[in-house]
Amino acid sequence: MEYFLTYLKVFAVGGAICCLGQLLINKTKMSSARILVTFMLLGVILEVSGAFSYLKEFASAGVTVPIVGFGSNLAKGALEGASEEGLLGAVKGGMSAVSAGLTSVIVFGFVFALLFKSKSKKI
Amino acid sequence: MNMLSKQEYVDFVKEKSPKSPMWRSMLAAFFVGGLICCVGEGVSDLLKLIFPAMTEEDVATWTTVVMIFAGSFLTAIGVYDKLGHFAGGGSIIPITGFANSVVSPAVEYNREGVFFGVCAKMFVIAGPIIVFGIVASVIVGIIGLFL
Fold first, then answer.
1. Closest by alpha carbon to B34, among A39, A26, A44, A7?
2. Angle A11-A13-A17 (CA atoms, 0-180°, nearest 5)?
3. In chain B, where are the structural domains located?
4. Which residue in the set A25, A61, A123 is minimally distant from B88, CB to CB?
5. HSE-up (13 A, CA, CB side) for residue A117
6. With an 8 Å Cβ cutoff, are B33 and A14 in contact?
7. B60-73 pLDDT, tens per residue?
8. Residues A67, A40: contact at Cβ < 8 Å?
9. Please, what is the Cα angle at B83 between B132 and B64, to 5 degrees?
10. How high is the ipTM of this complex?
11. Cα–chain center distance at A100
């Protein structure tokens, strides 16, 4: 039952974030790059304002799986770096916090691009 | 031949033009997005079960990596783009969509060679995200110096 409630919250919050994105796409005809940047910056703002930790406590993966989680990680790393190492930490903190994700995206992208031939995707 | 007034013509066009599937697309985005987030939660629960000693932070990082792997693989075999056609924002906004935005052009352009095909086109969509992300994180870090 406890599990069910957790997953329900994850589903509802994650779905709501994606729904908001779809609304933005429908209303403004934004490209996916702009949508992703917008939501990432939203994550940065939520993290700096302190709201993100509450959201994360409420809906864990519901906010960390959408790209807002990526933005929040960036901001969190930068803030932690700044408080621990000063200016140098402020500069490198953000990237080191997301380095695992970024590296895996690039490595998987590279490997899969070499392994797979593109299918003609006229849908 | 009956003549249409300007207003009648506008109404006629409005009636005949395809209705934007507003509610359908938002519902699809909600369901698919929510489901992907639930998969993420499932992955992190599974990791916690298999590696009980892992710290919270490491579990979150591994979850991201697993989700990115799943997104990349599904993109490479051509499933994710079909899903994207159905779900729109529901497949773009999760981290798997970020992986898709990198892998999709990389696979698409591999016929143009490794250098300017795969490696350059990989960042067509991810480039702005990375640049905005780095700039924002530095700004936040510098603000953090004064907190």
1. A7
2. 115
3. 25-145
4. A25
5. 3
6. yes
7. 999 999 999 999 99
8. yes
9. 45
10. 0.90
11. 13
Instruction: From chain A, pick out residues whose CB is under 8 angstroms from the CB of B119.
Output: 110
Name the residue facing A25 among B63, B89, B134 (closest C-beta): B89
CB A14 within 8 A of CB B38: yes
Distance from CA of B72 to the nearest CA of A (A): 6
> What amino acid is encoded at A104 in this protein?
S
Please report how many Cα atoms fall inside a 13 Å half-sphere around the Cα of residue B71, on the Cβ side. Answer: 35
Where residue A122 falls among pLDDT bands split at 50, 70, 90?
A: very low
With bands split at pLDDT 50, 70 and 90, how would you rate the model's confidence at B18?
Answer: low
pTM of the model as a whole:
0.87
**A19/chain B closest Cα distance in angstroms:** 5
**Beta carbons of A32 and B97 less than 8 Å apart:** yes
**Of the candidates B144, B58, B131, the residue with the CA atom closest to the CA atom of residue A77:** B144
Contacts of B19 (CB under 8 A, 6+ apart): none
A79, B141 contact by CB (below 8 A): yes
Q: How many residues in chain B?
A: 147
The whole-number pLDDT of residue A45 equals: 95
Structural domain boundaries of chain A? Answer: 2-115
